[in-house]
Every structure is written in C-alpha cells, then in structure tokens.
C-alpha cells in the first residue's frame, strides 16, 4: 500500500533528472532562520522526521497559497511526529514578512545563497526575459534574496526521516502546480511506515 501510494503521487510530478530521489540522503547544508541564525538541515531533521517544502519566495502568489494550505495539516503532521519546514530563496527578513502576512505557524528557513536548492538538484537560473516580466509585476528578485544570482527552486516537497533519508519526493517544473496539502499529509504518513 505504502509503495503504491508513493508511486501514484510521484507519477503526477514531472521528474527532474538532477533532483534527489527516494532513498537518497539529504545534503548537509546550512539554512538561516527568520532571525538569521544558521542551522544545519541534517541536525534539524535528526530531531524528528520532516516535510521539507521548497518554494520560490513570499512574492510568489502560488507559493503563498500553498504555504497557507499547508497550515491546515500542520497539527496533523505534529500528531504524526513530523515537523513542517518551508525553505525559500528569501533572505531572513523577508521570511518574517511572509510569516506575518500569511499567519504561518511553522518554520520558514532561508536558502538565499541557493546552496540547498542546488544540492537537492531542484534549482534553475531565471532568464533575463523572465526577470523583466517579474519586474513588471513589481517583483525584485535581488531585493528578496539579497543577491543577484537569480536562482530559484522548482517547487518541491521532500519527506525525510531522522537519518536524513528521503522517503518521498514531489518536484514539478511548472511553478503553478503544487502538491495538495492532503497529499503531503498522506506522503508523510506513508513514509513513516
């Protein structure tokens, strides 16, 4: 049942050859909290299993809808002993804005240097035409990330155990497509079995 559920969920996602797979060990990368404190991702997940959600930034309406929908399963994840962590390219100060604006009650972490998204194999460089369109929507990627690298993640969900082994992956190159909160919860439950 567990394998069937996971394969059904995975078949809906577009695969990215460079993305980490089920069974892979997550990289030992450093992320920053809203206060700017550096944390090791492996140390965070060693405390309890985690759902890691990679999103583009608080400026992205699709990301904000997804983050808000994930709030509806946070208590269920907690009952399962699983922590919910959302990781974006936003610098720490921008994370705080997102948390307050969307009234989020789970951890947001900054990967503004793009080390995590590169190590997870889900990064891409935003081209000049897309940057110009973003500016037309008043999105300043440089201000959001605090750098001019123009690296973003493909939206992704990874479920990992306390050893840092990935039990579930969902990645999609279409930034408008996100894994439904109920499916995230199912994946977290199935990965624990």
How is this structure best described in words?
By secondary structure, this protein is α/β, with parallel strands linked by helices. The protein has one domain: Glutaredoxin (3-Layer(aba) Sandwich). It is built from nine helices and nine strands. The strands form three sheets. Strands 5-4-3-8-9 form a five-stranded mixed sheet. A two-stranded antiparallel ribbon has the order 1-2. α1 (2-11) runs antiparallel to α9.
Topology of helices and strands:
Blueprint: H1 2-11, E1 30-32, E2 38-40, H2 41-47, E3 50-54, H3 61-71, H4 74-79, E4 83-88, H5 92-102, E5 107-110, H6 115-119, E6 123-125, H7 128-136, H8 141-145, E7 151-153, E8 156-160, E9 166-171, H9 181-192
Parallel strand pairs: 3-4, 4-5
Antiparallel strand pairs: 1-2, 3-8, 6-7, 8-9
Helix pairs in contact: 1-9
Q: In summary, what is this structure?
A:
The chain has helices at residues 2-11, 41-47, 61-71, 74-79, 92-102, 115-119, 128-136, 141-145, 181-192, and strands at residues 30-32, 38-40, 50-54, 83-88, 107-110, 123-125, 151-153, 156-160, 166-171. With 193 residues, it is of the alpha/beta class.
Keywords:
single chain; 193 residues; alpha/beta; Glutaredoxin; five-stranded mixed β-sheet; 9 helices; disordered N terminus
Strand and helix order: HEEHEHHEHEHEHHEEEH
User: Span between N and C termini?
Assistant: 10 Å
Low-confidence segments, given as residue ranges, are 1-13
Coarse morphology? globular
Task: Examine the coordinates and then state which fold CATH places here, giving the name of the CATH topology.
Answer: Glutaredoxin
Please identify which CATH superfamily we are dealing with: Glutaredoxin
Number of DSSP-assigned strands: 9
- Kindly give the count of domains: 1
Range of strand content: 15-25%
How would you write the strand order of the largest sheet?
Answer: 5-4-3-8-9
Radius of gyration: 16 Å
Helical stretch count? 9
CATH architecture: 3-Layer(aba) Sandwich
Characterize the biggest β-sheet: 5 strands, mixed
The average pLDDT score comes to 87
State the oligomer: single chain
């Amino acid at each position: 049942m567990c394998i069937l559920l996971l394969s059904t969920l995975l078949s809906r996602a577009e695969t990215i050859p460079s993305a980490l797979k089920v069974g892979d060990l997550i990289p030992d990368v450093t992320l920053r909290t809203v206060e700017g404190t550096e944390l090791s991702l492996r140390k965070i997940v060693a405390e309890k299993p985690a759902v890691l959600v990679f999103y583009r930034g608080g400026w992205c309406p699709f990301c904000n809808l997804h983050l808000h929908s994930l709030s509806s399963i946070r208590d269920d994840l907690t009952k399962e002993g699983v922590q919910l962590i959302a990781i974006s390219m936003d610098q720490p100060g921008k994370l705080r804005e997102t948390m307050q604006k969307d009234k989020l009650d789970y951890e947001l972490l900054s990967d503004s240097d793009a080390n995590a998204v590169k190590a997870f194999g889900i990064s891409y460089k935003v081209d000049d035409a897309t940057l110009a369109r973003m500016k037309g929507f008043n999105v300043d990627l440089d201000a959001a990330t605090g750098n001019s690298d123009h690296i973003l993640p493909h939206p992704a969900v990874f479920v990992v155990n306390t050893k840092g082994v990935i039990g579930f992956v969902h990645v999609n190159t279409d930034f408008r497509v996100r894994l439904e909160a109920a499916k995230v919860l199912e994946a977290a439950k199935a990965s624990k079995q």
